[in-house]
Amino acid sequence: MGKEELQSKLTAIFQKTFNDESLELSDELTANDVENWDSLSHMILIAEVENSFSIKFKLKDLNKMRNVGDMLNIIESKL
Amino acid sequence: MNNYIYRTAELKDISFLVEAIIQAEKSGTDILSYTTLFGLSESKARVLLADMLEEEVEDCDLALSGFMIAEYEGYPVATLNAWLEGKDGLPSTTIKGNLLSFYLPKEAIVKAQSLNELFSDLSIEHISGSLCFGPAYVVPEHEGALLLVKLCQLQIRKHSDALEAYCPIFSNNLSSIQNFKLQNFKVFKEYISHNEEIKNLLPSNKKLLMYKKL
């Protein structure tokens, strides 16, 4: 899967999780930039990502994700 | 008060901390969000909370090292969690969300997905760099000894770099609200959900964010 396709798929997951069709991703985007990105929605976001890409994160992977760019890199490393 | 010893929580305290988190979540009601939101039995929630505390992550609701304990005659009798928000670049909500996503069974997450939108009105902001207070609990026999006041003072002293402190509390948790008022915390913001369903899922449809300049 190319980076563009990966990002497009991830964007759809974010838009669905945060119920915001206008949400656009950038590598620098963090939880502080998105309304209602709380522990519950973060948990749902991670589950959706794992489901969609058929991957399973380790806890140490999750705790390394500072922003969307980190998330993309870790997903890419697991595909 | 001289008979109490105050210290940071350790692995041996986990069963007490699980009880504290459960009671704090219930806020004096019988409603446990781990049951209503995730469909877990209380006993399963207790096992998972212990597992998550054993991970010893830092700076969130479920961070073992953030809990300070009041001990009486060798037993923990009160606790209060606090952390510096976003200290290592991750919001506390993300750290907790990571634990939940890793430990909760798939069906619990699916159940939460269907309810997620109901909680948006009660989603509390966490201000980076501030001192955030989390679960607090005193065993009934030691209520009235001002243990939470003392633990709050110790947490503020421990995090002396913080310039402000916040504490989210359900509005029905009058004893906790009173304890923080004794420390000169004021109600900074109110979060209310008008969705009737919330009353079946959480102890209250109203949360207060209390604030104190340090």
What descriptive keywords fit this protein?
heterodimer; A: 79 residues; mainly alpha; Non-ribosomal Peptide Synthetase Peptidyl Carrier Protein, Chain A; 4 helices; 57% helix; 0% strand; globular; B: 214 residues; alpha+beta; seven-stranded mixed β-sheet; 36% helix
Tell me what the structure shows.
- The complex is a heterodimer of chains A (about 80) and B (about 210).
- With about 80 residues, chain A is mainly α.
- Chain A has a single domain (about 5-80), classed as Non-ribosomal Peptide Synthetase Peptidyl Carrier Protein, Chain A.
- Helix content of chain A is about 55%, strand content about 0%.
- Chain A has helices spanning about 5-15, 40-55, 60, 70-79.
- In chain A, helix 1 packs across helix 2.
- The radius of gyration of chain A is 11 Å and the shape is globular.
- Chain A starts with a helix and ends with a helix.
- Chain B is α+β, with helices and mostly antiparallel strands and about 210 residues long.
- Chain B is built from eight helices and seven strands, in the order βαααββααβαβαβαβ.
- Chain B has helices at about 15-25, 35, 40-55, 90-105, 105-115, 145-160, 175-180, 200; strands at about 5-10, 65-70, 75-85, 130-140, 165-170, 185-190, 205-214.
- A seven-stranded mixed β-sheet of chain B has the order 1-2-3-4-5-7-6, with helices on both faces.
- In chain B, helix 1 (about 15-25) packs across helix 3.
- Chain B is globular, with a radius of gyration of 16 Å.
- Chain B starts with a strand and ends with a strand.
- The interface between A and B is medium-sized, with 24 and 32 residues.
